[in-house]
Amino acid sequence: MRLQRGLFCVLLALICMLVPQGGMAENLSSSFTLTPFAGGYGFSEEQNLKDSGFFGAAVGYNLTANWGAEAVFGYASTETETGATDDVDYFAARLDLLYHLQPESRFVPYFAVGAGEAFISPEKIAGESDFIVGYGAGAKLFLNDTFALRLDLRHLLDINDVDKTRSKTTVSNVAAYGGLMMQFGGLTSMQTADQDGDGVTDAYDRCPDTATGISVDGWGCPLDSDRDGIADYLDACPATPLGATVDRRGCPLDSDRDGVADYRDQCSETPAQTEVDERGCPANDHDSDGVLDEQDRCPNTPQNIPVNDLGCPKDEDGDGIFDFEDACLDSPGDQPVNAKGCPVDEMVEDVVPQGDTLVLNLEYPTGESAVTNEFIHDLQVAADLIQAHPDKRFVIEGHTDSVGPAAANLRLSQKRADKIRAYLVESLGIPAERLEAKGMGESQPVGDNATQQGRKSNRRVVILPIP
Predict the structure, then answer these.
(1) Among 192, 177, 179, which residue's Cα sits nearest to residue 26?
(2) How many CA atoms within 13 Å lie on the side-chain side of 179?
(3) Which of 180, 223, 385, 428 has the most crowded CB, counting CB atoms within 10 A?
(4) DSSP state letter for 101
(5) What is the DSSP letter of 325?
(6) Residues 22, 106: contact at Cβ < 8 Å?
(7) What is the value of pTM for the model shown?
(8) CB atoms closer than 10 angstroms to residue 437
(9) What CA–CA distance (Å, rounded) separates 444 from 411?
(10) 159 vs 55 pLDDT, higher one
(11) Handedness of CA 41, 45, 46, 48 (dihedral sign)
(12) Beta partners for 61?
């Protein structure tokens, strides 16, 4: 113990001399450290070893800015103090846990506690290895982000119950040493700061003032599970469907206050106090046209058809054909019209039966072949004709006018015939084996292609039995 008090006093004096007035560097979280050191080691008189120099290195890792772990490896070359003089090599290895005070400053004092093993060679001096337990303090003075001067003082308890030459099983040693510490990597206090304590550091936190206890996303903002713009902790309806407009409580809007949210409400302007069904429509308006059943003269109007005050589809030109079925919405009211609402002297009749043959004058837009809603009535007539002759097979011929190249007209007529056949089979239940489709192009005109009326007559579909 002769050097122990002296070493301790020297260490305290050096620490006091090194205390700085301020600085920028700091003890970094998640950093690795390497410290080569040199100093002195004071042995207990019980060990019969002379005090000597002590050299080694420490390798550490800072778990946080305050807490760190460090493996310390040291060596002392000494000799026996009494009796025959023998050279002795002393090796020590221990693992220390460090707690740093004021880690964000340049001057960082710390406390340490640890345990390890000591090995003395030759073994005849002390027998097998000793178990050592130590505690102490130290300080780091950062010169910059990478380098720091470092001083350490340790009180080490050397425990050996095998060495019979010792009068005590446990003896006290002391070590004092200093070195140059190198720090690698790590996060600064700015990078690890989390002022709202939500687990997302301020450097990445888009919502740095989140209240305590609020669940947050990866950006540090309160969770909004249904993405309605209202955070879960404020959301009275946290499972609102995506895209639904919500109120300040996070619940779907119900503009007409009928108990059915707007995103499900098919009648979003229902008058107040009106009884509604699950669609949000008046319970006594079965066709949902806005006219209650007791006032509705057309209670089965198709969905989304504009109606008049009586609940019937509108007929703006007064020709007796509802607008949604009227192909000529501006027909004079005093002129006879056909089933499509067009004056009879302006259109070729849609369906012309000729015995067991049917001519369909279908108005295709130029270059088009799709089956439209306007064709459905005529195709039902065609289906009825075919069903009336169950013992016959039919061919569907597509015909065009002469406008455009003949090859293109042939292809177009084939497409039209194919699609008429497909509709009759798939939508009207005609067995496929009873129908063929054939494009005739412009090869069989029935009207003069030089006139508009003649060309209209030539754009037709003919359904006739196969002999």
Answers:
(1) 192
(2) 24
(3) 385
(4) S
(5) G
(6) yes
(7) 0.43
(8) 20
(9) 15
(10) 55
(11) positive
(12) 32, 69
